[in-house]
Amino acid sequence: MKRSEFAGIGVRLVGGTDGAGGGGGPLVVLMHGFGARGDDLVSLWRAVEAPRGTRWAFPEAPLVLQAAPVEARAWWPVDIEEMMAASERGGFDDFVRRVPAGLEHTRDRVVECLGELRAKLGVTRLVLGGFSQGAILTCDIALRTDLDLGGLVVLSGTPVGAGGAGTNGTARTGLPVFQSHGTSDLLLPFAQAEKLRESLAKRGMNVTWVPFRGGHEVSDVVLSGLGAWLRTTLEGHDL
Q: Global pTM?
């Protein structure tokens, strides 16, 4: 594993020909969720049977949550109590319709980071994804920018902002998407994930939908499905 900085964001690189992001294979970028450590998802690259030579990058969110007893990071601030209350009273639609403060700035920073990754690593095929808040950011970037993407990985994400489940935003016709969500997710309701799936499909994206029995997590079913999806999505790519 190698840790570097791209556009001021710390990134852990693994996989490839040397275990540290070397070679010319495609790049899978996964962004962690709210309150996680910067290396929270790094171990997934060994659990997912991606094509040989695939490179992996794990950016760490720039916001450090000061009140947390251990390292905890976020892509933008979230009032978890307000979010849970909105879910319990059936007002989650209104909660996710708002554009969170800090999201737009973070989007710009991550897009710049991805640009540097692509340029410095010589990436020709980039798959962008994340878990929870990282998945939300993934969808935001896909819908709000013209960044060249070879696929999306949306693990336990929901719509966010006025365009999250609406009809505006970038079409991305034919873009492959892997989306998973636990049917018993108490943090981000399953129904919201279904709305996101419908929204992405309406924009012309090719969504592989993997619901599973479980909560806010990345299950073995998800890891297996993601590996199969990556092998299909990256088939024929020069690794």
A: 0.93
